[in-house]
């Protein structure tokens, strides 16, 4: 997942200077909001999704209430076909 974030950041920097930094900032802000309230909509079985503000990507994650932990599995483009994504 970390490699995906770097790839996305680098892509946006090639498109427009500073856009990659803005993407990374919004990603970090979204992760911070997960720490405060992780109970967003369940989309696939137990997988929840939260969009990254201003970018066509969603964080796919799971909440373990017993351990009070959030597991981030992927950051996937909203343009990606869910049938070909890793989440089924």
Summarize the structure.
Helix content is 36%, strand content 28%.
What would you say this structure looks like, in words?
This protein has 88 residues and is α+β, with helices and mostly antiparallel strands. The protein has one domain (2-77): RelE-like (YaeB-like fold, 2-Layer Sandwich), CATH 3.30.2310.20. It has two helices and four strands. The chain has helices at residues 2-15, 19-36, and strands at 42-44, 47-51, 57-64, 69-77. It has a four-stranded antiparallel sheet, with helices on one face. The longest helix is centred in the first third of the chain and has 18 residues, at 19-36. The chain starts with a helix and ends in an 11-residue tail after the last strand. The mean pLDDT is 88.
List key phrases describing it:
88 residues, YaeB-like fold
Sheet bearing the most strands, described? 4 strands, antiparallel
CATH architecture: 2-Layer Sandwich
- The whole-number mean of residue pLDDT values reads 88
Query: What number of domains?
Result: 1
CATH superfamily: RelE-like
Regions with little confidence, pLDDT below 50 for 5+ residues: none
Please give the radius of gyration in angstroms.
13 Å
Helix content: 25-40%
According to DSSP, the number of beta strands is 4
Q: For this structure, what is the CATH class?
A: Alpha Beta
CATH fold label: YaeB-like fold
Kindly report how far apart the N and C termini lie.
18 Å
The neighbouring-strand order within the major sheet is 1-2-3-4
Shape: elongated
Class per helix and strand makeup: alpha+beta
Q: Could you give the order of the helices and strands?
A: HHEEEE
Strand content: 25-35%
Discrete helix count = 2
